[in-house]
From TrEMBL:
SUPFAM superfamilies: Oxidoreductase molybdopterin-binding domain. Residues 1-22 are annotated as: Disordered. Residues 33-177 form the Oxidoreductase molybdopterin-binding domain. InterPro entries: OxRdtase_Mopterin-bd_dom, OxRdtase_Mopterin-bd_sf. It comes from Spongisporangium articulatum. This is Sulfite oxidase-like oxidoreductase.
Amino acid sequence: MAFFGRSGPRDERLPPGQYDTGSSFPVLTAEVSPKIKPEEWSFRIDGLVDSPQTWDWKGVHALGRSTYEGDIHCVTTWSKLGTSFTGVSLDPLLELSGVKPEATHAVCWSHTGYTTNLPLEHITGGKAWLVWDHEGHPLPPEHGGPVRMLVPHLYFWKSTKWIGGIRLLDHDEPGFWEVRGYHMLGDPWKEQRYDGD
Ligand SMILES: Nc1nc2c(c(=O)[nH]1)N[C@H]1C(S)=C(S)[C@@H](COP(=O)(O)O)O[C@H]1N2
Ligand SMILES: [Mo]
């Protein structure tokens, strides 16, 4: 019997109900795209942590560099296969903040005010990044540059553009799209598009 994993043929890499958008990279933004200069950008971790931390552009670059190579899936049904983003894993930033044991969820917020919620175990263990390059070029402003979140195993609305920070909570709290009926988790392989899926 043939077995195809998520790195197999393109068809096998498409979650249910998704199509391959090829080389295009659609822009989906609810707000007006801000123009944030790298030297003006900052990222904060606070809430249920031992010591709230803020990093600037140089600070996050000093924490390491890794590249995600793989697929992304938007709830509007496009998937982009075999793309790449470079940045830093969220793990060292969370470790430096000292996440308290009672923390179970995170709300990611954008400098624009956009928010989205994630269970803590979905942004730890090498599953989430802050990214500033896309396919070897600086992340364009319309795609969330200078720095966005990347949580590629969930639908792309969970990947906050113009990321400003993460607040750790001891409960789940719906973000911008979640209060408008989107799923609290958003696993594309379980087709968790809307509340109740
Ligand atoms: N700040 C912010 N982040 C956001 C959004 C947004 O409107 N504002 N849209 C989300 C949605 S619905 C998707 S599909 C992706 C789109 O990212 P892209 O425009 O780079 O394709 O960003 C997510 N992050
Ligand atoms: Mo989306």
